[in-house]
From TrEMBL:
Residues 92-178 form the Transcription regulator PadR C-terminal domain. It comes from Pandoraea vervacti. Residues 10-79 form the Transcription regulator PadR N-terminal domain. This is PadR family transcriptional regulator. It holds the Pfam family PadR. The lineage of its organism: Bacteria, Pseudomonadati, Pseudomonadota, Betaproteobacteria, Burkholderiales. Gene3D superfamilies: 6.10.140.190, Winged helix-like DNA-binding domain superfamily/Winged helix DNA-binding domain.
Length: 192
């Protein structure tokens, strides 16, 4: 139940309404664990039924049906238990790899536009990660030392930066290979 654990982690950082949690999720954990707002609301209901979280009316004087969620002791225990279990790394599963294998097997399939599109998407996400790092973790002599929590958050962000940079480099290399073998021009390659 990784979504439940991701949500409890976020709620431990800050009790939130479902709406605020979904917005925060999109801007942090959502970079490496995707969930729609509907999935988040359904999971919150399941977690509350399981006794892992509870909710109370938002302090808006009852003008809305908004609820604020927080993690209960049972949820904290569940998160601790889950965090201590072993998991296997995720396998790479991307249909682009199959397309490239098909290209190798049956000849040029014109994959350059898709590779260029993917490179652009990875460059865009890489820029977003770097902007987050610059905003949340400024470097330089005047930056205060990071807390344990912030250091771990930055370390996770750095994996995202490396991941996107790796994919960007790989897609550019694939485009260069296809250009070499298929006679594509430099215009087919995305700019650095």
């Amino acid at each position: 139940m990784p979504l439940a654990h991701a949500l409890m982690t976020s709620l431990l950082e800050k009790p939130s309404s479902g709406y605020d949690l979904a917005r925060r999720f999109d801007k942090s954990i959502g970079f490496f664990w995707r969930a729609t707002h509907q999935q988040i609301y359904r999971e919150l209901a399941r977690m509350e039924a399981a006794g892992w979280i509870d909710s109370m009316a938002a302090p808006d004087g009852g003008r809305t049906r908004k609820r604020v969620y927080r993690v209960r002791d049972a949820g904290r225990d569940e998160l601790l238990s889950w965090a201590g279990t072993r998991t296997e790394p995720s396998d790479l599963r991307d249909d682009l790899m199959v397309r490239l294998r098909a290209d190798a097997a049956i000849g040029p399939l014109g994959l350059q536009p898709e590779l260029a599109r993917r490179a652009a998407l990875h460059a865009q996400k890489l820029a977003a990660y770097r902007a987050i790092e610059a905003r949340d973790f400024p470097s330089g002599g005047t930056a205060p030392p990071l807390s344990r929590e912030a250091a771990l958050q930055r370390h996770i962000l750095r994996l995202g930066v490396r991941y996107e940079q790796g994919w960007l480099d790989w897609t550019r290399e694939a485009l260069q290979l296809l250009a070499h073998w298929d006679g594509a021009t430099a215009a087919d390659l995305p700019s650095p």
